[in-house]
Amino acid sequence: MNENPDTQARQIMDNLTLYYGPKKKFVAICAGTGCRASGSLKVKEALEAELKKQNLSDVDVLATGCLGFCEKGPMMVIHPDKYFYQHVKVEDVPEIISKTVAKGEVISRLLYRHPETQKTLFREEDLPFYKKQHRVVFGQNGMIDPARIEDYFAINGYQALGKVLSEMTPEAVIGEVKKAGLRGRGGGGFHAAVKWEGVRRAHGDPKYVIANGDEGDPGAYMDRSLMEGNPHSVIEGMIIGAYAVGSNQGYIYVRNEYPLAVTHLTKAIADAREMGLLGKNILGTDFSFDIQITKGAGAFVCGESSALFASVEGRAGEPRAKYVHAVEKGLYDKPTVLNNVETWANVPLIINKGADWYNTIGTEGSKGTKIFSLVGKINNTGLIEVPMGTTLYEIIYDMGGGIPNGKKFKAVQTGGPSGGCIPESLLDIPVDFDKLYEVGSMMGSGGMIVMDETSCMVDVARYFLEFLKEESCGKCVPCREGVRRMSDILEDICAGRGREGDVEILEAMGKAIADGSLCALGGSAPNPVLSTIRYFREEYDAHIRDHRCPAGVCKALISYSIDAEKCTGCGVCVKVCATKAISGEKKKAHVIDKEQCTRCGACIQSCKFDAIHVK
Amino acid sequence: MVNMMIDGKNVSAPKGTMLLESIRGAGIAVPTLCAHEAISRSGACRLCVVEIKKGNRTRIVTSCLYGVEEGLIVDTKSERVLNVRRLVMELLLSRCPESDVLQKMARDMGVAPQPRYAVDTDKGKCILCRSCVRVCEEVVGVSAIGLFSRGSYKEVGTPYNEKSEVCIGCGACAYVCPTGHIEMISTGDRRKIWGRTFKMQACPKCGKFFAPVDQLKFISKKTGTSMEELSVCTECR
Predict the structure, then answer these.
(1) Same domain as B220, residue B164
(2) What single-letter DSSP state applies at residue B135?
(3) What CATH code is carried by the domain that includes residue B9?
(4) So what's the ipTM on this one?
(5) CA distance B49 to chain A (A)
(6) pTM for the full model?
(7) How far apart are CA B183 and CA B176, in angstroms?
(8) Is it the case that residue B96 has pLDDT exceeding 70?
């Protein structure tokens, strides 16, 4: 292990990156999974062909990872002016090249239009979605093609590693991360440096370093976008961590459902190896470290540390009691640092810019930024990175652009399926690890699902418990049997079979399951139920006592009717009704046969006159 | 030795041992279903939970897996502990309504079935404590049975529920099963278990059918003892 400053490492690093300065003219086209789905790769090909055609060989096209504003894909940012174009099509490409790239002229139809003022906004940073963000980790995605290590060099990539290996002792690295107050982004919020210190001190050889990329929350894709969009930042963080704790072997655990992440990580590891940044004698020092990718099969529980270890070891992904911590007995019972992908990506930044800089971002107990995936009933769906301590209100209304179709906000669920639902009255709380826990939810890995007045909170709880029931590994009784029974009761309530006393049973079960379960999956599984009971008790009562679903969601408790005043008799609903439940004479008010109606909602969506009501 | 306070009593215990042993050693009863002296512990049933206090922090742990610690304050009957145990018993009673072992245990603990839970009809008496799987792997060393599927679909069985080629019919799984779920039928020179029928060895001296031939062959191969020697039952040997 290299304990001494090593100037040679710095020199090798400098030689390696000598030729890669920052780029001037380039088009960054988002090629994250979301934008790929909306056709961004075709646009990229067209861009390259058109540049050739117009003889603009000095302009580079970067197929970047996710740029965050997934709602607007395919999107691109044209540098150096940073013009932001949304919903770009192949047909737009010749004009983009001839006008914007060649002459710096903007094409206004491709610009973002402010939803309220209707003013067109030119630059990425002018957009309300981006304006309040602080994209220190995620922002790098827009500057690099993740498949090219040179691009990472060009944005100071691996400089932190160079600094660590040439100037810092392992203790100094841990000290800096500790001073920065970096807490785990995977859910628990445990202090990274404390883990690192524990592993450094632990007896046992070898020691392992693992990145947890088993992002399993429905609707969450922060880690995927980092692995896809900036794999080297994760790898660099891991190498620094390995140096700090004294490990020579690392693993990235990534789910196989993330094929692009696997591809980019594989390429990045191979490139880093070729450059001497991974493998034996990194940068000429006597420190050696390599990384292997382990593909998970998609079990939610494998994001739990001990289940993840079991899975890497080739056993069934089941957690075990963690009374002896992973820093002493982790993977193969050896000292192990397991950090989330986003945590690792923060490490190079801390080393490069220093703990003091890092400390200027965030709150007292939670430093730095956090990436959230903002989904659900929200105008601006996408990934955002904000300083810890940003309020939920700012996230939902300033960046998220509020609730679509003039509907009223009801709740936001943070922390993934086993997080809690936070009501409107608490939107002013600053988002950090401790505050979210206080209000009965959690940070989790950063999922944020927004719900409006058309979401039934009992149904939401039912949905998440159903998910958790399916994802329980089945090892311990409270989680396997308890979550199933809670799910059954919620199913009953939504189907109109709720009984007086059900809420009290759910509460008692929730507490005992949280106390009695073996791992954090069971420990937090009751959260969606307990938090919705805490903040939306009246909705439970309405279902159980009045056989009424106030949000009009639970099919057994609602009925559809047509407002005779509003109905024009256009007959559109008749055509979409699969059960032929709607009838009426042309141009006269129609009626719904409640016996035939399956309450699928197709008629409501088809009606232009808002004439169909749910009660 | 470490010193602890268990339900207000001073108890000392050798380092490296588990709380469960010290608690029972102090004459305090703790219910368990999955802890068996012959096999490693999984912490699956959660009945042995206790509340521990270390500094200002209290938490619920499974005593079968929690190592003794100096200065630990243990409460084996706190409200939180009893709530977890009650929940576990209620859940198991609805999973395995026919198990007399569970019914007796529940009666002793003062727990009645929770009427709000539907009663399962397809789980038999299996509580998925995994004692059978562990004994087959750790003691017998053949791993003829394992756990498959996940969550509430989890089951114990042979791979693909087919007749196991490695099973030696020893019946260790049936012996450790706390609820009597695993069916082993021995009639004369035949023993049926896990869908396979094993030929039993008769002792040449007393004539008793005492073990499956496959088991004796397995032992002979493992230990190098001759089949002639092993064919005599332990009582006549």
Answers:
(1) yes
(2) I
(3) 3.10.20.740
(4) 0.95
(5) 7
(6) 0.93
(7) 12
(8) yes
